[in-house]
Every structure is written in structure tokens, then in C-alpha cells.
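ASSEMBLY PREDICTION REQUEST
Request ID: AP-0331
Submitted by: J.K., bench scientist
Number of chains: two
Total residues: 500
Priority: normal
Notes: Please return the full assembly, not individual chains.
Input sequences:
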Amino acid sequence: MATRIVVSGLSKSFVMHLQGGVQLPVVQGVDFSVDAGECVVLGGPSGAGKSSILKMVYGNYGADGGQILVRDGERLVDVASADPRRIVRLRQTTIGYVSQFLRVVPRVSALDVVAEPLVARGIDRALARSRARELLARLNVPERLYTLPPATFSGGEQQRVNVARGFVTDHPVLLLDEPTASLDAANRAVVVDLIREKKKQGVAMLGIFHDEEVRAAVADRVVDVMAFRAAA
Amino acid sequence: MSAVAMLPDAETERPLLKVSRLSHYYGARLGCRDVSLDVYPGEVVAVVGESGSGKTTLLNCLAGRLTPTAGSVEFRMRDGRLRSLFGLTEAERRLLARTDWGFVHQNPAEGLRMTVSAGANVGERLMAIGDRHYGTIRATALDWLARVEIAADRIDDEPRSFSGGMRQRLQIARNLVTRPRLVFMDEPTGGLDVSVQARLLDLLRQLVADLGLAAVVVTHDLAVARLLSDRMLVMKDGTVIEHGLTDRVLDDPREPYTQLLVSSILQV
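STATUS: Completed
Returned structure:
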């Protein structure tokens, strides 16, 4: 299986200038890789730096050192050093992300929130909407909500919209930040199925799952983030 | 993975606007200093900072409305060549402003003609680029009013009779009707009610995406920058102190001033 993500020597700390410049080390010497068709789970207690690692792979957080190589078609992109426009393109074509919370855009319907990543890739809006509809239906989002902006939805409904938005594309790399945190058992099972389907399609996934049952169902390997704990 | 050599990205895309070491002084007083920036086709760049940080001075220099004291601004003309903005004649620059650029002012009254009809405000830009057929112009104007959600029966009304939000939407229609390649926006949602702002932002987002516009948006509102832009620049005291991917600058700010800005956002 082809390797899709290689992280090596990655380090990160925060400097809080408003708190007198105190430096908060997060992780150092992070090394792992993710192959096509596998789901690697970042493990460790809260505050260990799982989310920071995931955000660095997406380019959302900057890295202090090390490399994050992501295969983009025939070439490798180092997210840790790529210029912003490269990262914008990488997100359009290669790296998908399901965040824990939905950042709502005022006035945009749930259906269009989900269809948007497809439209951004040049897929016809009608086709994008029909794929969005299928996925929302699988995730048991009531049809009457499709035309409404998700701002007023419950936490679980928002999360399902978010999951649908992340899974609707065929990005070869998918990052999952607790995609099942506010879901009931039935919908957790749907997400587990969706992850298994992505594996069959050869998608490389890197995720954080606190729910043990979900983790056991989807994880091919667990990377213990405590091993990368930065010395304070 | 090691089988694939690390290739540098083939940058086939060329910048539309190239700004190098630009400074502007008002007499002895600093407007902005040593700003370099490239804007590529189809991307939205936000310039944020508080009042007096130099962001509007920068925007006015980029749009050829102010002559920089030092540095250069180059624009890629339709023939593919970069031309220095300030090497163009005044007439050439005016033509460019009508054909290839848009400029959305914070105060719509500055960008509209308040005493001619809404339809004429939109149609005028089309006539300026050589459209002469009344029927086509009116049809296009109607189409654009619909796109910015202004009812067709208001086409003959003057913008004086419009609300602030409607005026701003009309100004946007007037600017975009000629399909400019680059749009400058100065606080496009400033001075509007929050609900009106949300509607306008959503509209701008959609239009920018549908038309593949490049835009430079000046705003003091970080939420506007997050929703509209791919990249952002943070200005303080006339200089750019931090720049990068919009969500990275907002979620992982490095500079003390950017951290202060981000932490000062009111949460609702």
C-alpha cells in the first residue's frame, strides 16, 4: 500500500505573548506514517497534543520544526513548509477534514454546506447537492432540515452535517477530529461504516476518537502521542 | 514514498497583482511601509488591522488611487504582461479601473451615483466598456439586481431611496457586472446591521466563488476575513507584521499583536 502521510521530527509549542511570553511546549519528535486504506488513531489523554498534531497536518497550526509530507498525486508536499496557496490547493484536492464543531456560515443551507467541497472541486451544483442529500440521509438528518442553515441545529445534527461535509468528497487523505463525539449509537455506527468504506477506497485516515468502541472498530494502529510529549 | 523525488511545485500560475516594497507617506507621516504582496487569480486576500494601521492607504495604492512614495505595483494586463501601475497614463489607468477592476467602498454613496436609477448605475459600467444595446444592458442589469437580491421593480428607483444594505448590494452589482479580474473592497460590511452583514457576506462569498474573482479585502473584522479570505495580512503601525493562511493566522497567531487581536474578539 502506498504511503500517503509521513510525519517526521515534528515539533510544536505555543508562545503566549499576552501571558508574558510563556512558552507552552506541546509535542516534539513526532514520527509516524499513514498508508492508503488505513485508519491511524492518535491516542493519549486530553492535552497530550493529539488535536495539535491533526491541525498541523491540515496546515491549520504552524509547526516549529520537522516535516509533514503528504502525497498529492505524483508529488509530495511538505505541509510544514508549504506556502499558503499550496495548502489551499491541497485542501481542495487532497486533504479533507472533519472538525469537532461546525463553523457555520450564515444563511447557507445544510445541503449547500455539505455540497460546497464538491462545488469547489468543479462538480456541477445539482450533482453535488444530490450526493450531499444521499449522505445526509444516511446520517439520519431529517429532510426538513436540508434547506435550513445549521446554526440552529442541535449539536448532534451539526456534527452529522460536518461529517457529511468531510465524507462527501473523494479526498485521498481524511483527518477526523472526534467525528462521533456528540452522536448517538445508531449514528456512530453509520460513521464507522463510512470509515470502513473509505478504507476500501484506499483513503488514508488519521483520527482522534475518544469513544473506545468506535476506536476499536476503525483503528488499524494507534499512535501513542505521550511518546512525543515535549519537556516543559 | 521515497521513490518520488521531492519536486518543487511548478508554479504555473502567475500573479495578477505584484506589490514590491511599497511605502506611502503623507508628508512626514507614515501611511504604510515596505509592503510586498502577490495576488493570484481567484484568491481572496484580506488585510486586517485596527484604524490607522495603514490598511486603507495600502488598498488605495494598490488600486492606483494613491501614488506610492516608494516601491512598485504591477498588474498583469490581458496580454499577459506585468505593467507598472504608475507607468500607465491616467487614461490607461481609468480604462483599467472600468474594465479589469472593481472597487467596493465602505460607504456606497462613494461608489454609486445616487441620483440616477439603480438600473443605470449597473448599466453605466457596461456602457463604459462599449456595450450600446439598450435591451441587452437592461436585461443584464436586471439579472445582476436579481443576483444581489434587489427586486426587479426597484430598477428605476434611485439608490437614495435604498436602505444601507441595498445600496451596498447595488454597489457590488455595479462593480461585478463587467466581470472584473480583481476587486478591491474597503470594509464592505462596515456600518451595516449584523443581520444585513451576514446576508452581504454570504452573497460576496458566493459571487467570488462563482466568478473566480481575485479580491483584496480590507477589514477590521476578523470574522469577515475568516469567511471571505484564503490568505490574510495583519497590519500594525503601517507595516505587515504577520501573514499567511487565514485560518492559521487566526487559530495559531504568532505575533503579540495578532494574539491580542484574536483574543479580543467578542464571543456571543
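REVIEWER COMMENTS: Chain B has ten helices and ten strands.
SIGN-OFF: pending second reviewer
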